Amino acid sequence: MNHTVILRKWCGKVATERAAEYARYMTETGGEDLQMLPGNLGYQITTRDLGDGTTEITALSWWTDMEAIKEFVGDEPERAHYYTVDEIYLIDPPEFVEHHTVMSGDITLRHSR
Fold this sequence. Notes:
Shape: globular
Radius of gyration: 15 Å
Oligomer: single chain
Number of domains: 1
């Protein structure tokens, strides 16, 4: 049986001193929304300090298919989906996201205590 997985990737930029705050905000809004949606397989939020006072924030989410993504963002899934407060944090918010078909891979997250 072949299972297709779609990776949705969004990258934005924020001031470095607000990166942790924005990542927390993203988790509390979009992350919580994603967890309740049929067809969403999970998400991650990553940061990368660009060394110039800005930090790149990337939101990765995995989906069963494009129809599930459309249920979340509407009929134009290639357009970025924003919440009202996003504009307070983001520097030049991107208009579009990327979608990738996952061909293979494996990840196991282990948390140490």
